[in-house]
Amino acid sequence: MIIWLASYPKSGNTWLRLFLCSYLFLDSKTKSFSLDLIKNIPSFPNKKLFAAHGIKPKNFEDVAKSWLIIQKKINSNNKVNFLKTHHSYVTLNQYSFTNKENTIGAIHLVRDPRDVLISYSKHMNKTVDETLKLITANNHVGYLDDTNITGDIRGSWSLHYNTWKNFNLKEKIIIRYEDLINKPYENFHKIILYLNKLIKIKIDEKKIKRCIELTNFENLKKIENLNGFVEGNNKNVPFFNTGKYEQWKNCLDKKIISKINREFENEMRELKYI
Questions:
Q1: CATH architecture of 2-112+139-230
Q2: How far apart are CA 74 and CA 2, in angstroms?
Q3: CA–CA distance, 52 with 63 (Å, rounded to integer)
Q4: N or C, which end of the chain has less CB nearby within 10 Å?
Q5: pTM
Q6: Environment class of residue 262 by beta-carbon count within 10 Å: exposed (0-12), middle (13-18) or buried (19+)?
Q7: Where exactly are the structural domains of the chain?
Q8: pLDDT tens readout for residues 115-170
């Protein structure tokens, strides 16, 4: 069964994946930490994953038809399968992105959209105004082109948040990126407790602390500078940038801040961002 790591882009999903990979898949006695560990939690959808299961979609409707087919194939290993996604929990032409038959749980990671805007614009190499149009558009689709037609339906920041929040799963958890920054042990520990409830993993207090140290931003930036990072798509911009929060206070003008606050007011109040 699948446990989703769901988030809007630039909300800390990669950080969370690396923490979980170091906790779940790193044998501290025999292996050293590497960014390549992230391959243990692949992205969904992605072209390689589809090809590995013998599916080569020709258009985006083919992709939608294949969402549940691929997930069923993944789950045929009778193991717990972690998958990362930026996809909203939506349907396309009657095809649902996922369902409770394929899903055991979801860790839903959210970040203040004002900081998402700054980080996403750098990541996409677009202006803040261009990126603002993306994160407020319900038809925003990521990386959909002739070579990668398994792009994800991201939608607006609020659409993404609400669709995953409303996914009627018995067991799911919402974590704010800002809380991971401010109280890393408390919140990563909370995530491990959640996973233990789902799949009965060992709770190792020392290992949680060690994995937090291994995956702090300074260490991740250092490793990326030395060895690069397979998921970095812009060689001129490091994937692991500042990792800070409330950058928007110094980086965004008042008009843009006001527009985001109006656009996402209900969700931001619910998450205590305003």
A1: 3-Layer(aba) Sandwich (3.40)
A2: 8
A3: 14
A4: C
A5: 0.90
A6: exposed
A7: 2-112+139-230
A8: 999 999 998 899 999 999 999 999 888 765 555 556 789 999 999 999 999 999 98
